[in-house]
Amino acid sequence: MSRSAHPAGPRHADVLPEGHYSAPPSDLNVLDPKVWAQTVGRDGDGVVTVGGIDVKSLAEEYGTPAYILDETDFRARARAWRSAFGGDADVFYAGKAFLSRAVVRWLHEEGLNLDVCSGGELATALSAGMPAERIAFHGNNKSSEEIHRAVSAGVGRIVLDSFQEIVRVAHIAQSLGRRQRVQIRITVGVEAHTHEFIATAHEDQKFGIPLAGGVAAEAVRRALKLDGIELIGIHSHIGSQIFDMSGFEVAAHRVVGLLKEVRDEHGVELPEIDLGGGLGIAYTSDDDPREPHEIAKALTEIVTRECEAAKLRTPRISVEPGRAIVGPTAFTLYEVGTIKPLDGLRTYVSVDGGMSDNIRTALYDAEYSVALVSRTSDAEPMLARVVGKHCESGDIVVKEGFLPSDLAPGDLIAVPATGAYCRSMASNYNHVLRPPVVAVADGESRVIVRRETEDDLLRLDVG
Ligand code: LLP
Questions:
Q1: Does residue 293 share a domain with residue 150?
Q2: Is pLDDT at 19 greater than 90 in this prediction?
Q3: Which residues are registered as beta bridge partners of 342?
Q4: Which residue of 42, 71, 291, 385 has the lowest C-beta tally within 10 Å?
Q5: Is residue 185 within 6 Å of ligand 1 at its C-beta?
Q6: Is residue 107 domain-resident?
Q7: What is the tally of structural domains in the chain?
Q8: Is 327 in the pocket of ligand 1 (CB under 6 A)?
Q9: Catalytic choice (117, 307, 391, 422)
Q10: Ligand 1 atom at shortest distance from the alpha carbon of 242
């Protein structure tokens, strides 16, 4: 088989260059705490446990595939973010990463706020009792109906994303006899080092209002004139799965620059800035994410320094981590169905889910880890590709991972760090049913989002 590049590009990775693979870990049974949820370990029989429950029992009770979410870890991460920023800042969990009513309650209890970006996310938040004033409403094309609902509910802020929206929100708020607190989302011309499809702060994209050319300054000018809205700050989100803080530094510098312009022109010091989310997590042992306290310290120092230089009062900072809170807290549990060794290449391991429960590998070329979790094994490592059951050759969950060569149908394997953007981006492709989310903590497990059924599918199909 040729090992030169395939004309269709790297997705046809049957022809990867020699030496591409990382070396297998010395012991396949070891679970790297960087990529696994906090309470994950192995019991005396070598079966992986989480929250004090072993995965074989979880598979028996809830079936596979299933997202298994470590509630203790989720709460610990939420608390770590909250306490890292202290009382002078607000942490808005980005609901798009994963949202359910249980999650909303945990966030509420741990003192976090919530960022929603659709009517559906807003409905979920409100139905689980998140106080409306702790909700921020985002989106580049909110419908008038969504704006109406958000304003009527009394959300703490709406993040304005276009000139039309400035007027639309002001008009709707005024018609409701309200003055809606708003921020303006700007693009600061920073392209974070991340996959192109998920980079969001360079200028050539749909989000935000460009800072360049005085466009954002004009947006502020218009917003300050309208009675229906109260402009409380500027928002910037520079991308996702970012490890390097320098992008945030440039963004903060530019946002503060705009605050200074606003003060000089209007005599108004806007009291808040939001630096968005985007902090990276470890999907494999090669990733080295920052801890929340390091991130909080870096961001607070940057903003304070920039404001001192501009002779501005330091605004209240907010951040919107999604992935960094929920991503590492869950793994997807699959059962192995078929195993196909392809001589000299790799072994294809098919599981009972696939791109319908994790689209990130196909969409972003994302990398994941994988481990055998229903037992340990001392067999030689084999280079494996974990694939799903969909009718599509791009249906890959883990492009490249090592599993023991005695892997057999019926074994359980798990893919860690699937808490963010997996269930929330899941689909029904091939009418495959979306898996449940099972929360575990202190020896107890419960379904927080149930498995989809064929009845669910047929209910939408009106014949
Ligand atoms: N705030 C805003 C305004 C955002 O647009 C986002 C993500 C976040 C916060 C949260 O970002 P996080 O901390 O979770 O990275 N589906 C892609 C990620 C899309 C992110 C969209 N916006 C993925 O699976 O990687």
A1: yes
A2: no
A3: 346
A4: 291
A5: no
A6: no
A7: 2
A8: no
A9: 391
A10: 15
